[in-house]
Amino acid sequence: MTNGWIDIKNTDMMLIMGGNPAENHPCGFKWAVEAKRTRNAKMIVVDPRFTRTASVADLFCQIRAGSDIAFLGGLIHYAIENNRIAKDYLLNYTNAAFVVKDGFKLPEDGLYSGFDAATQTYDKSTWNYEEGGDVSGKGPVRAAAAKTVLGKDGKPAPPHLPENVAYDLTLKHTQCVFQLLRKQYSRYTPEMVERITGAPKEQFLKIADMFTSVRKDGDMKKVATIIYAVGWTQHTSGTQTIRTAAMLQLLLGDVGRSGGGVNALRGHSNIQGATDLAGIYEILPGYLKVPVPTDTDFKTYLERITPKASKPHIWDSWNYWSNTPKFAVSFMKSMYGDAATKQNDWAFHYLPKVDRNYSWTYIWDNMYRGTVKGLFAFGMNGVAIGPDSNKNIEALKKADWLVVGEIYPDETSEFWKSPGITTDEMKKIQTTVYRLPCAGFAEKDGTFVNSARWLQWKNAALPPPGDAKVDQEILARIFLKVREMYQKDGGTFPDPILHASWSYTNPLNPALAEVAKEINGKAYADLKDDKTGQEVKAGQQLPGYSWLKDDGTTSSGNWLYCGSFTEAGNLMARRGTEDPSGLGIYPNWAFSWPANRRVMYNRASCDLQGKPWDSTRKQVWWNEASAKWAGNDVPDFKPDSNPKDHMGPFIMNPEGVGRLFVPIGAVADGPFPEHYEPIEGPVENPLHPQQSNNPIVKKFTTDADKYGTAKDYDIVCTTYRLTEHYHYWTKNNPMNVQLVPEPFIEVPAELADKLGIRGGEMLKVTSARASYQAKAMVTKRIKGMTIDGKKTFQIGIPIHWGYRGISEDEGRTAKTAANLLSPTVIDPNAWTPEFKGFLVKVEKV
Are 809 and 742 in contact (CB under 8 A)? Predict the structure, then answer.
């Protein structure tokens, strides 16, 4: 979230897409209801189903699953053509005025400039800004002569951003970002939106008018927010869908403002924390990039990952990622302590160099191919999660070993008992399975990091039962045993294991409070802030990430969490209920990264002079008397940057401004989002039928990977969660099973009539991969749609069931997992599988 749960109460307008917070985030949804109750805020819900969230909306529109970019692109088109944009914000706080290279081509034919069909990749060199300063009213920019810069390997170095960007403050240059944006979405007319999404033109126009009304007649006081969840992310277009929402909010001037922003609703209590601490393969904690094989030393690594400012020369950019060396050295000190020195490149060579894609779906694909021999699965039910659960089961049959840490036996730990496997087949499975009983969430302390980036400390309610152990004890015992083996027997490269910092009071079961202090970081030498005179002695906890150094005198396991456990104690355990501003900031409740800041990019809540756009929702402001930024929230800005210096508010971008256009491949499939059909879609893409799907999305190619077409599978299927169940665990809990005892398939009444289906009858849903059986729930909450002239139906399947669970549901379920149906295909940026929109056929059993 750019903002936070409580801040939603401050909004004037909500667009909820790709999420159903009333049912999936019922506690957080109270703040949306609060905004309606106290501010008369309007709520718009766009979803494939009429949900409980939709039931309290001012406007609801049904949409085809997987067509969100077309809908949002239509909103961008409407906002621009009806002059409902934040002009000063757009000009000064985004890259709208930046001029793009002449060779750049928009994807009218479905392809951006630089596409190589043989490799299914883009040469992104034209996805860049021109150099040249102010070209306002001067016509085409004369491109500088291209210079080929070679890297250390003798090959052309990757393109880099120009230091002095060409810009046109009139926004009239044909290659300026604003004009390219306008041209890109000129194709996304209300008529085209209807053809792609199924949303009737009149309905779409009502929503477009309502949502953009916050900028009617140039008003800058009102603010809108966009709220989403995995209904957006779980598509091959997931990253670009979120990008489109961010672009819309930049156009409207809503990012950085109380009641505004783009707000992701995290589905589990600690998904945000897992991501912050490198739960995905391509980052280190704090979103530092992982080393790759071409990073021959620490200097080369830092040069690759540390951005240089790229902006109009008359503007300023803090470019806060320029501090990457401080974050990286402090991380290495946290990992290896005294073993990380300047002489050994801060132990940089201890880190693995990532040479391929190790994301979720690739791990299972490599196991299926026989190259991954074992798996640790802690709190991750890979068989039930999918995609293509059968492929994952077959992959586990080929593994040498599997370790599962769980509170219940699950589908993954009992893959060898999955439906259809005979006793004789079981005997042939050679995989050794170790089941470790783990502690449940209420049986351990530590932090949850919620959607709002709040690190909230929790205490254990009771000890784990029997032989169950907390996660850190299991991991510590495995690590120490592995280290003991290296000490005894040696190995090819034991240094990273032998020199890892492990100075906990109880090495076999580290206290999480000690780990939290380590993540915050400490001083290795006496430090002093010359501006304030504040001192930190060697061995003391650091007050915040501004103290981090690149000379080895500081450590921090995650720079974003620096400031969460200081000499003042565990700030994550704070529970102060003071809220002087009334904006729901609660500065003394827990700790919000970064720097206890509640709304990111909050400099953008003020005009160019540093005065809030809306004085009734004052977040930060420029204090002329003290020549510093002040606020109810922690200013997300250089504290002494005078507004006259024109420093951009988006301090994490090299440009200092928000990106409507993303240069040189920061997003793999295009600088602007484009609608592509899901890999399994019901129609050819109306925008460019010859290039229907995303050209760089790759299908997996084993014999288990099968993909359907509309010729054989004519119904769109999406999956979702229920309030009464929590993912794949609660089917083991009698109370939850009593609430919803068996799975079901949500079927439109019109489709049911067509197929002769009545509620409660058993259905068989079949995709190109497998079949799924459950009872029909005939509903009017999903209606048939017309997609590009073709009558199209959608069905919905809750995900919570499988072949494990308590006996109360015996005989009521076919024991098939919903993700038997989903395809092995992923977003080319975030690697998230396409669970939310694929093709099936439906028939009575």
Answer: yes
